[in-house]
Each structure stands twice: as C-alpha cells, then as structure tokens.
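Hey L., structure's done. Input below.
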Amino acid sequence: MKKVFVTVAIALGFISTSIAQEIDFGVQVGANFAKLSGEDIEDADGRTGFNVGITGEVQTSQQFGILVGAIYSQQGLDGEVFGEEATLKLDYINVPVLAKFYLGGSGLALEAGPQIGFLVNDEIEVNGTDFDQSIFEAQNIDFSAGGGMSYKFKEGTTLEGLAFGARYMIGLNNVYEDNETFDDDVTNSVLSINLGYKF
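Output:
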C-alpha cells in the first residue's frame, strides 16, 4: 500500500511542479465489469465488482488536463475454467495517469493513457470452495492502457464538482506469468462506469 501512495505522490508532485498549476482533488466510486482474456478461459464470464478511490487532476488549459488516481478495483472472472465453476477474485490498487482532451472547452473530455496496478487480493473459489491458489498465483504488478470519456460540471453550475465517465483498460502483461496451468497468456480487461466529485 505504501508503494501506491508514494507512486501517486511522486506523479502528482512531478505534474504540478512541471506545469505549475493548481490540482483539483476528488473521489470516485463506480461499477466494474471485468474479465480475464486467454484461450483457456475464453468461455468464462466476467466478474462484476466496484471501484472506489481518490483522484487528482491538473487542467493546464481549457483543452487539456492530466489525471492521476489511486483506485481500489475489483477484477477477475466468474465462470467455467477447465470444466469447473470458478471465481477468480483479483483486486488491485490501480494508479492511472491519463491525458484528458476537453472538447470545445466544455466539460466533456476524451481520456487516454497507461495504468499500473498493485495486487492487494488474490482469491480462488472452485465450486463454491476455497482453492489452493499456490498452484497459480497472480503477479503482484499489472500494467494496462486504455481510455474513455468523462464529463465534469463546470464552476458556477448547479452541479459544480460532480463528474461521471466510462473507461476501458486492457491488460498488457500476463497475469499468471511463470505458470504452467494456462497454455496461453491471461490478461486483465475492465470496463468501469464511475461517478466522481471534485473538491
């Protein structure tokens, strides 16, 4: 956990120092529709969970901003794996660093950028029973990239401070590296729908 906050603090410090702008801090909460991708689990369903965390955004102009966050994110899958009903619970603290491109100076923005995830929970249930996960343990670090859209209500409006958006992140590394259980790479992907508030 300490690594996460150090990473966020360094990122925010670098951004604010380099562009000398005020940072708008906020919180977000939302729903996750996560999935693991790979040949061995292509028929498995995704896992529905939630995300919650803090964000900081520097808007350098009416058209551009940078967002950094520390987001607790429930991911994994829930479905058939090797003929058995299984639930793989992979929970991360994700640290996105996203460029935000505001359209026409409005509150509507396109987002894109990388994300690093720190694994904080790794559980497996097979047919409703806890499974010996030492057989295949997830990697502690997950890298992903992606983007989405967001909208924040501007200063002076009735809903000032509120924001909402949707984001899709695709994993870039094998979740179960150095493991012989899966014949192919297994990667994360997650669609999140979020509601936020900027202070």
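The radius of gyration is 18 Å. The first helix runs from residue 2 to 19.

-- N.
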